[in-house]
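Board notes, transcribed. Complex of a protein with pyridoxal-5'-phosphate.
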Amino acid sequence: MYIPYNIATIGDEEINEVIETLKSGWLTMGPKTFQFECDLAKYSNTEHVVAVSSCTAALHLSLLAYDIGHGDEVITTPYTFAATGNSILYTGAKPVFVDIQKESFNINHELIEDAITDNTKAIIPVDFAGQPCEYDAINDIAYDHDLVVISDAAHSLGAKYKGKSVGNLADATCTSFYATKNITTGEGGAIFTNDDSIVDKLKCMRLHGISKDAWKRYAKSGDWRYDIGSLGWKYNMTDIQSSIGIHQLKKLDTFCDLRIQHANMFSKLLFDMNDELHIFKELPNRNHVFHLFPILLNNYDRDEFIKEMNDVYGIGCSVHFIPLHHHTLYNHLHYDDLNNADFMFEREVSLPLYPSMTNENILYICKCIKDILC
Ligand SMILES: *Cc1c(COP(=O)(O)O)cnc(C)c1O
């Protein structure tokens, strides 16, 4: 038996919708994408959703929509995927990393204020593993200093903070439909916002800066003429992807419930191992959707553990994340005081966690962890 680190859950509904779209002859952004956007907005109770080609694109366009660029600074966490930091660099702005909390891997909101300078324009909190950050505190700081908050919710679609859905916790919220995420379109992303002032800009910038109805130019009602008003990118989603997304979204709550059930079972089975490893609990006032199940090893070499899990027991594990300041690209920015990020990275292992796992899978994984560590 081999238990892979991740498997996407795709049903006949997704497959049939993709076939229908292929047969329709309209493959790129069109009616299916607009339906997917409407469905996402309804799901999260957010005014506007703009679907794009990835969460990376969503972050990049959100920063641009708020006019962030050269000379600006954006505060974020080092404990994230390349997308968060790179999208800041795309705009010419400087990523300023603030250390994380040991309780959640999320940005330590108490350290944000000290990192603010005259050049700071935005904060990008990342909801690590599917657990929303401390948004009340973060939004208060942003309000006091006239900053925008762009949430990286690549892990947290389906989660809530103080009863409010992800999508409504920041000025703009960026999520991912990458293959391993809470729901997938293979590759894809979306921006959720209640800020009317950025919607037209986002829609324009996802398609080269051409006027927002340009996709219609090959439809019956369309016109061949268009104007490029400002520089945009090629970041649109396609109707093939949206065909998958429309049906994945209907399953999102079930997927989240399964993730939570699996996480609870892991927590129960690993509870008596607190000498060997550390597990993470949901913080108060939020619903954690367990995109990941991270553990910290107290006194066993992390790399050796992952190798044994894979080679001896047939279990795929991963590590989230290699902190951004450890990468060569970010070396020259000279960060210090990121001690918690360094500490967690040395010891972190992400166990397999996805909706289609069985209780037997989880029992076996926990038994193997005990064999290795005890
Ligand atoms: C996956 C991920 C992204 C990027 O998503 P893409 O859709 O692949 O661009 C951004 N942030 C975090 C925290 C992620 O895990």
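Residues 95 and 369 are 37 Å apart (CA to CA). The radius of gyration is 21 Å.
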